[in-house]
Amino acid sequence: MSGIEIGLLGLAVMLVLMLIRIPIAIAMMAVGLGGYSLLAGVDPALNYLKTGAFWRFSSYDLAIIPMFLLMGEFAAGAGLSNSLFKAANAFFGHRRGGMAVSVIGACAGFGAICGSSLATVSTMTRVALPELRSAGYSLPLATGALAAGGTLGILIPPSVALVIYAIIVEANIVALFAAAMIPALFAAIGFMLAIEVYIRLVPNASPKGIRFSWGERGRAVLDTWTTLLIFLLVIGGIYIGWFTPSEAAAVGVFGTGLLAFTKGKMRWPGFSDAILRTARATAMIFLIILGAEFLNSFLALTRVSYIMAETIQASGLSPYL
Fold first, then answer.
1. What gap in Å lies between CA 165 and CA 187, rounded to an integer?
2. 284 in helix, strand or coil?
3. Distance CA 234, CA 251 (A)
4. Which tens digits make up the pLDDT trace of 242-288?
5. Nearest Cα to 10, choosing from 306, 309, 287, 301?
6. pTM metric for this prediction
7. CA separation for the pair 143, 140 (Å, rounded)
8. Most distant pair of Cα atoms in the chain: their distance
């Protein structure tokens, strides 16, 4: 078999492994090391297993991942998600479907200080789902709004997914953060419009809520000032040039951690749980990065990536296509 055929076969095997529920990191690692051994030999593959892992994990940029994850844990412990949901609900909750729209807005706000979709959706579910259900919202609408809004966690900077992508392809993290803001805004607006369409198709899915006074709305917005301050400090500091992304993540962890402790919502058990959840998520992400490193090396040997790129470039298709 040629290198191209081996590369395409390897990709097919990887997809099959994922479909039968083999963890993504293990599927990529198995195909990457197996294909590398087939093309270059077992001894070079074992040697690369050592050097590739050291080279990938010795990168200083990887420190940003656990810090952004811990920042989200501390933000949840400080109750920032609750204040965001209350502020959004104060403006939209009186409308039919307004509380579901508020979930999208709150997820977007929480995503701005948390780089993980998993952390965003789990935190907002604890805060908003009981409120949605007690207000009479249908379970499909309530859970659908939370699931959709949770995806904003990895699109709105700071985003762990963008950090991982930047590290793997050696792109500029700051440029990726800037580029993600517009699609994140369109995604949030699109989710809100989808809710508006749904409640017109299924009117019984959501009741009208209580209208808040402007004074109550103002107080609810003021309660979110800490979230806005942390976002401006972290993301604004990166864009202005005060911090590198890793330094900004450390500043964010310190700020959200300080809030979590001073507000009295986090003590030692909560702190240790936040550290453990961060460690588990970081280990999972790092293993995926290592699997991607081995897969990339295998595909580089087969030249599948280069040939696919050259084929598309020579196709004569328009830039939009």
1. 20
2. helix
3. 7
4. 888 888 888 888 888 888 888 766 778 888 888 998 899 889 888 98
5. 301
6. 0.75
7. 5
8. 73
